[in-house]
Design goal:
This protein is α+β, with helices and mostly antiparallel strands. It is about 40% helix and about 20% strand. The strands form three sheets. Strands 1-8-3-6 form a four-stranded antiparallel sheet. Strands 2-7-4-5 form a four-stranded antiparallel sheet. Strand 10 and strand 11 form a beta hairpin. Helix 3 runs antiparallel to helix 4, helix 4 crosses helix 5 and helix 6 crosses helix 9. About 25% of the residues are buried.
């Protein structure tokens, strides 16, 4: 039996769960329609109000999806890293995008046009179900983010973020837990709908109260995880 040799684009697509199960006959035309983008740091990939006519897959780097308020403040809704995707909702609808997309670092992104995706979904309905599952997860994350902004205080938001990103894979219950920040504090503050100054004040308060110990610019030790979990609840 001859095993088909996959092109680099086909190989990249198969690393994403929704496309990993496609047969060669469906995968090949989808890969041929794909366009690879290599945005540099700070480059806008999609403006608010755009109609991209397809979805994006992040192969390398990171893309931030954000809003700009009437006062000019940036609100980061989501950070899409390697292995993530965005604009799935644009497969079935041509409505203008409410979010802009910008590379936070040098990135590699694959764009898949709507027509090719619809053809692939017709050929293999399981792809449509998988993409809808991804979209449902995004909706859940969006609602969780709205809940944080509406129902939680600034201290609760920061505690919730730290608990979510805590590495609890090793160590005894009650032991110190490390949190490695994947982005700078200004970006985290924007995700939590806080000003950088408020975010810093909350961290200082948690430090004074003995809940955390900062370790440089990108690491925090949680010295009382159970208490932080209660604060975040």
């Amino acid at each position: 039996m001859v095993v088909p040799v996959l092109t680099p684009t086909q190989q990249a697509l198969t690393r994403f769960a929704p496309f990993g199960g496609l047969d060669a006959a469906t995968l090949e035309p989808l890969a041929q329609s794909a366009r690879t983008c290599r945005p540099t740091r700070g480059e806008i990939l999609m403006h608010r109000g755009a109609r991209p006519g397809g979805m994006y897959l992040v192969i390398e780097g990171e893309i931030k999806l954000f809003l700009i308020s009437s006062a000019g403040a940036e609100r980061i809704v989501r950070l899409a890293g390697a292995g993530d995707s965005f604009c799935e909702e644009n497969i079935l609808s041509d409505t203008p995008q409410t979010l802009a997309a910008q590379a936070t670092r040098k990135s590699v992104v694959i764009y898949l046009p709507r027509g090719a995706l619809l053809s692939a979904m017709d050929a293999q309905p399981a792809l449509g179900r998988a993409l809808m599952t991804n979209l449902s997860v995004r909706m859940g994350e969006l609602v969780d983010g709205m809940e944080q902004c509406i129902q939680r205080s600034s201290t609760q938001r920061v505690a919730h973020y730290l608990v979510q990103h805590a590495d609890c894979s090793a160590g005894d219950v009650g032991a110190d837990v490390e949190v490695r920040l994947s982005c700078n504090k200004q970006t985290i503050a924007s995700q939590l709908n806080l000003t950088p100054e408020t975010f810093s004040r909350v961290l200082n308060r948690l430090r004074r109260d003995g809940f955390i110990v900062p370790r440089g610019r990108r690491s925090i030790t949680l010295t009382d995880l159970p208490s932080l979990q209660l604060i975040a609840a």
